Amino acid sequence: MTSPFIKVITHVRALPNREVELRHVLLQFVENRRQEKGCSSCELLQNHIDSTEFLILQHWESQARVKSEFSPDYFREAVEESTELLAEPIQISWYDFVEP
After folding, report:
1. Could you say which architecture CATH assigns to the domain 2-98?
2. Tens-place pLDDT, residues 31-69
3. Which of 42, 43, 46, 75 sits 20 to 30 Å CA-CA off 35?
4. Backbone torsions φ then ψ of 49, nearest 5 degrees
């Protein structure tokens, strides 16, 4: 059985020596995302060993809510002006919480 909650995990990789610039853009995205109705949490993580790798973890209260407002291009559009900072395409995955 799946729950109505959904976790969105976004993987982003910066070009070498562009991590600080990309981190600034991602922090702004995370701050804005936290303000959206239905988003119960949004965190930015940076890999401890490979500083070019970032993860954004979003926890949404309702699948219907996130699916109505979150298009696959939402994140890409949010950082479109920073594509020169990216080493590879952004990867976005959606996960359902699994309950017994």
Report:
1. 2-Layer Sandwich (3.30)
2. 988 888 888 999 999 999 999 999 999 998 876 666 655
3. 46
4. -95, -45
